[in-house]
TrEMBL record, chain A:
Signal peptide: none annotated. The chain crosses the membrane at residues 39-58, 78-98, 119-143, 163-184, 191-209, 252-270. This is ABC transporter permease. Keywords: Membrane, Transmembrane, Transmembrane helix. It comes from the Bacteria. The keyword Aminoacyl-tRNA synthetase does not apply.
Length: 275, 306
């Protein structure tokens, strides 16, 4: 009895100041302690870089572009990077949807009544983790495709116009989608609804709109995967092209606004709603 | 100290909690009782700032709980035991919570020891029994060494040893001067644990008083008397000021006597030469008092259309 009582009393009751970095550390512990996290990341990287190998090899069989300009594009095939979009969006959403599903969110909220800070801490951890994964994926893709192309004396240096931009845009695709997924997860809370909505907005929506008419092109260009498509193009659109093409600065703005708006809405809503 | 005043929560047109006011004081174990659906969990959630009240207010140590940027040092709460991520280990779950509140890591080992989960600390919570999850929930509540503790149905799923342990723990936490607030729909859980009771039914306050006062409110104690000469004895007892209800079947008549104690009934029978087969005092249990008081306010009653 005495020992038990002392066990309860050893911690001083004086509370240290509430620090945001403690919340980040806490969310990092949660992320790290799930077995699925390293597996998901490893498999995703394998698939993304693997798809680059396949795409670059295929390019050898049928020479595509009029010149070298199209070659860096091989590094970022849609099959691989749309998968990255799906996985990042889903994992981002799950970090919060799983808390709502299990009820853990209540325990979390009692521990940290400042709900907005919890969402921001989750966003910080997700952004950091998926920027790392995205950078590994896009650098890996670039190096692997260059290694294959160099074998055919068709390599393109990183200093080539647009090549570095493509690498950065592909690296940031993962955190952008993960943050959008997190925001949707907070807003919708329901697993299936969140998955369907994030897949729909991130992947299914852009092909619905064409670049043939102004309004349709405007909607398309405001979507994340279309912005990524523009940013990895190392060639400039032909002046005589019939379609409307997104601008590079506009595409960067789309990249910034989607996660910003998603997280801002999430923080606003989470403060007002019953847990 | 927990203070609830005029707390009301409406879901659409339904009032889950209806102008509820009560105070939970430190240094005592206070039971929070009500039938299923009485609004206990909703009330606890409002005290913890998880749900916003429609009207009214709740404070913990004088402050609305949601104003604290970090909560674990102010209130420890066990909500539902299932509210954990099954894929994490108990140690990781507690470490993440401790870290968010700037609580040192060694505290995690202390509370795991305290609730007896040290050996399974690194096992995934998904494989835990309900009783183990309850213990983990209690560990979570103890993490910040808080002055106020709230437990929602803490005894659910615990084995008898666990129940004894948890009762001793609650008594000890109260003896240390903490506010201990336990919800339950079973009166029997409170009989040996709580000092004070807050009883609600359909969201309204039914009683807020000591366990002893509450028991006394229910059926007054009655005496069962078995005798072959029931009619005669009934007349004698009625004349002595008792109220008598005949019970039992023909040939084995019994009388339920209220208003005079058993020894007085024995003496009256002896004086009148009436033989007794049985003389048993039935004390009102808390359970009976609870059933009587909440009978009108039970939300879901089996087999009785309202």
């Amino acid at each position: 009895m005495t020992t038990l009582t002392s066990a309860l009393r050893t911690t001083p009751v004086t509370a240290p100041p509430a620090r945001f970095r403690d919340l980040i550390a806490s969310e990092w512990i949660k992320m790290r302690s799930l077995r699925s996290t390293p597996w998901t990341i490893a498999l995703t990287l394998l698939f993304v870089i693997g798809s680059t190998v396949v795409a670059t090899q295929a390019d050898k069989a049928a020479p595509s572009g009029p010149d070298d300009l199209f070659r860096p594009h091989d590094a970022y095939p849609p099959a691989g990077y749309w998968t990255l979009i799906l996985v990042a969006g889903t994992v981002g959403a799950l970090t919060v949807v799983s808390e709502y599903n299990s009820g853990l969110i209540r325990t979390t909220t009692v521990a940290v009544p400042a709900r907005g800070s919890v969402v921001l801490a989750k966003a910080a951890v997700i952004a950091a983790l998926w920027t790392a994964v995205g950078t590994a994926a896009s650098t890996g893709s670039f190096l692997v495709s260059q290694a294959i192309l160099a074998g055919r004396l068709a390599g393109v240096p990183i200093t080539h116009p647009g090549v570095f931009r493509a690498l950065v845009a592909s690296a940031l695709l993962a955190p952008v989608c993960a943050l959008v997924g997190l925001g949707l997860g907070v807003l919708l809370r329901h697993a299936a609804a969140t998955m369907v909505t994030s897949v729909f907005t991130l992947v299914m929506l852009p092909p619905m709109f064409s670049e043939g008419s102004r309004w349709s092109a405007d909607i398309k260009h405001a979507l994340v995967s279309a912005a990524w498509n523009r940013l990895i193009q190392t060639w400039e659109p032909e002046p005589g092209s019939l379609g409307y093409t997104a601008t590079v600065p506009g595409s960067w703005i789309v990249y910034t606004l989607w996660p910003l708006i998603a997280i801002a809405l999430a923080v606003l809503v989470v403060r007002r709603r019953d847990v | 100290m927990i203070e609830v005043s005029e707390l009301t929560k409406c879901y659409g047109s339904k009032r889950a909690v209806d102008h509820l006011s009560f105070t939970v004081r430190p240094g005592q174990v206070t039971g929070f009782l009500g039938p299923n659906g009485a609004g206990k969990s909703t009330t606890l959630r409002m005290i913890l700032g998880l749900d916003a009240p429609t009207t009214g207010a709740a404070t913990v140590s004088g402050v609305p709980f949601h104003r604290h940027p970090r909560g674990l040092r102010h209130v420890g709460a066990l909500l539902e035991a299932g509210q954990v991520h099954g894929g994490r280990s108990a140690a990781a779950h507690l470490s993440a919570l401790a870290r968010s509140n700037g609580i040192p890591r060694r505290r995690v080992d202390e509370v795991l020891q305290e609730v007896g989960l040290t050996e399974v600390a690194d096992r995934r919570i998904g494989g835990f029994s309900l009783g183990m999850k309850q213990r983990l929930g209690i560990a979570t509540a103890l993490l910040g060494d808080p002055p106020v503790l709230m437990f929602d149905e803490p005894i659910n799923g615990m084995d008898p040893e666990g129940v004894r342990w948890v009762r001793r723990l609650f008594r000890r936490l109260a003896a240390e001067g903490r506010t201990v607030f336990l919800s339950s729909h079973l009166m029997s859980e409170m009989e040996n644990t709580a000092d004070q009771l807050v009883v609600i039914g359909r969201g309204r306050l039914i009683a807020a008083e000591s366990v002893r006062d509450f028991a006394a409110r229910g059926t007054r104690s009655s005496v069962m008397v078995g005798t072959p000469r029931a009619a005669e004895l009934a007349a004698v007892l009625t004349a002595a000021g008792a109220s008598v209800e005949p019970e039992g079947s023909a040939g084995a008549e019994k009388l339920a006597v209220t208003g005079i104690p058993a020894d007085r009934i024995g003496a009256l029978a002896f004086e009148n030469g009436i033989r007794l087969n049985e003389l048993t005092t039935r004390t009102a249990s808390l359970e009976v008092a609870f059933m009587e008081l909440t009978a009108d306010s039970t939300e879901y009653q089996a087999g009785q259309p309202r």
